[in-house]
Amino acid sequence: MAYVTIEGETYEKELLELAKQHTTGRNEGNLSKDEVLDLMKSAKDGPGVTDTELKTLQYIRTHFPFTDAAATLFDKEIASL
Q1: Contact 66, 30 (CB under 8 A)
Q2: Tens of pLDDT along 41-64?
Q3: Which end of the chain is more exposed for a tag (fewer CB within 10 A), N or C?
Q4: Helix H segments across 1-81?
């Protein structure tokens, strides 16, 4: 698993790159509900969501744009972890 350090904090590189891919290119730049589900699937790829994965998801929530529906879904998914 690869990590990246941002402002002294360690995050999962794969999740950050996935969020970046979803917010650049063909779409309007906001994370959609399907893309949120994709991020959650990636975070849950192991035996559970690690502390680093959870911290990375929280970073994505505050630093990436979401559609309103995606933000609601993301918050619900995070609360269930």
Answers
A1: yes
A2: 999 998 889 999 999 999 999 999
A3: N
A4: 13-22, 33-43, 51-63, 68-79
